[in-house]
Amino acid sequence: MSGNTLFSANLLLAYAAYFVGTASPGPSNLAIMSIAANEGRRAALAFAAGVISGSMFWATVATVGISAALIAYSHFIVAIKIVGGLYLLWLAFKSGRTALSASVATASKAQRPATLKALYTKGALLHLTNPKAVLVWVSIVALSSNGSGTAHAAVIPGCAAIGCVVFSGYALLFSMESARRFYTRARRGLEGSLAVVFAATGIKLLAWPSK
To answer: Cα–Cα distance between 205 and 83 in angstroms, integer?
Structure first.
């Protein structure tokens, strides 16, 4: 097997791992679905752009090798873990409050629509405050690396393209009129489920061992 073939196989494996991670249901995807159905396409795309930016930040950190130092520095991981867990619990509270609202109109009055900038920031924070994202990217970079441990140069732009397709796809799909009508009918159940996912993830993150 030639070196180029090996690198290509490693890179495809890294892409596959990233695709599975991004396409699988999780807090980010569920939040994009909710925002798309509730606030529309532009809002969901802004949030998705933030999610992608946060992911690519950790990708860059892992690629240049800073991640190893951050993981070794336990106080950093603990701080990010606490901030991330509390942030997810706050999102759970907001989703729960929306679920308990009597109607979409009541929910809209109770919560002022966020600006695109605020939605972008919210999406980025969802990844930036997740220490597990660092570990995931360490694994992806390792999968794409050659025998000397050097990451393939295409891993970040390739995964960025995959992330754009997946997250933007969710935003576009769930902002369709049929999806928005479904959301109106099932809003309380969906927002309640989102609150549970956020709360469970936040609690799990806070309880995640530091070592």
So the answer is: 10
